Amino acid sequence: MSSFLAGAATVLAFAPVGLFPLAAATFAYLIHLWMQAPPRLCFWRGFWFGFGLYLAGVSWVYCAFLALFPAAAGWLQARIPASNWVRACLLIPSAWVLFEWTLDWIFTGFPWMAIGYASVGWPLQGYAPLGGVYLLTFATLALAGLLWLLVHGPRKAECVMVIVGIVGVGQALHAVQWTRPSGEPINAALLQGNIEQEMKFNPQRYAGIFDSYARLAEGTGAKLIVLPETALPRFYHRIHPAELARLEAAARSNGGDLLLGVPYAQGEDYYNSVLTLGVSPQQSYHKRHLVPFGEFIPPGFGWVLEILHIPMSDFGRGSAEQPPLAVAGQRVAVNICYEDVFGDEIARRAADSTLLVNMSNVAWFGDSLAPAQHLQIARLRAIETGRMHLTATNTGITAAIDRDGRVLGRLPQFAEARLEVAAQGYEGMTPYLHLYHWPIVVFSLLWLALFTIRARFIR
């Protein structure tokens, strides 16, 4: 079970611990286990590594299913004959990237624990504006392969030089300013209501919930006020006009706007939405990437609703073409909850925006690793896009992140509070906003295909 323990230890490379070099070490050990092993054994060693990783890191989802992807990566690389250095530094990183990318879209996608996120705050993050999280994943596994070769290969000096080169270039890329400021900074207020999940949808608690957010919204000089996802747990058309007027007055008193997370009904459909209140014309954003069984029920699984009784668990899907919200003098690309784990979707909307805003309710996860991991994901989205990223959550972690991934301010978890920050808009395009993750995905596919074809001709 050494592969299981190595996978579990890898979680320490992610937030909140953030010990990135440990990821290079544990993957170097996995590469050691995969070297010269037959495909079947590589499959099971990859499975147990993945099971340890996902059990320790995201135990709130189906770990055994997710572990099949590292297992498949191990099986695939073992099927392709290659020299040690090619296998360690090209084939294994390519196979891992391929299956991380598959997790981005299969069954609506769940790429939460992509290894590239662990490099946030370390030199490799400099590559993020070039190719996103999967380029960071490839670089991490390539470093792991070089570490393995440093121990087991004959050309140790060359390995050291390449390791220093990869890390050095990543660090140098930190100095590149891919985007430029757009206008003057604006004052923003991020509200954290700290409403317990089991009480949120209790009708008797609604008045207290509204009053908490109204008090937080008032008395601030912010031009942009941001509430969390479904901050008011009542359909928008059922909210009393006087309550909406109170929130709007808080925004108008500063000559600005407020982003309200609220369920929104339109005909027979209803959406997990963000609506604007304030001096700007009213606009809306409807969440597009929904959580299976949490926000929508896949076809044939309607019976689950009768068993789980989850409130508002079959939302409609918002349009793919929703423009940024023009509020507080900025073009704001809003995303809701775990939508910001899908880097390509954020990139498509960020290109026309000056500011990113995430509105979440992570009270579902309690005092787990998920909120810290979510903040780490948000930091990488800021780096990839060259945009400041504001995140307002119900129970934390509410934070303001600059375009280089630095956390400029954050609130403690499980506290009712307001975070006031100076939010700078940015414009311009990083390479990632042009090409998304396709260069590293195609690169990985080509390497796997090239050595597969080469092996067939050699035979």
What this model shows, in words?
The protein is α/β, with parallel strands linked by helices. It is built from 15 helices and 14 strands. It has two domains: 2-177 and 436-458, no CATH class; 180-429, Nitrilase/N-carbamoyl-D-aminoacid amidohydrolase, CATH 3.60.110. Helix 2 (20-34) packs across helix 6 (128-152), helix 5 (84-105) crosses helix 15 and helix 6 (128-152) crosses helix 13. The radius of gyration is 23 Å and the shape is elongated. The model has no long low-confidence stretch (mean pLDDT 91).
What name is given to the CATH topology of the largest domain?
Answer: Nitrilase/N-carbamoyl-D-aminoacid amidohydrolase
Count of domains = 2
β-strand number? 14
Query: Into which percent range does the helicity of residues fall?
Result: 40-55%
Give the number of helices.
15
What average pLDDT do the residues reach? 91
CATH C-level name of the largest domain: Alpha Beta
Could you say which structural class the secondary elements and strand pairing correspond to?
alpha/beta
Into which percentage range does the β-strand content fall? Answer: 15-25%
Low-confidence spans: none
CATH architecture of the largest domain: 4-Layer Sandwich
Gyration radius over CA: 23 Å
Strand arrangement across the biggest beta sheet? 6-5-4-3-2-13
The end-to-end distance, rounded to whole angstroms, is 35 Å
Order of helices and strands: HHHHHHHEEHHEHEEEHEEHEHEEEEEHH
Broad shape: elongated
Please summarize the sheet with the most strands.
6 strands, mixed
At the fourth level of CATH, the homologous superfamily of the largest domain is Carbon-nitrogen hydrolase
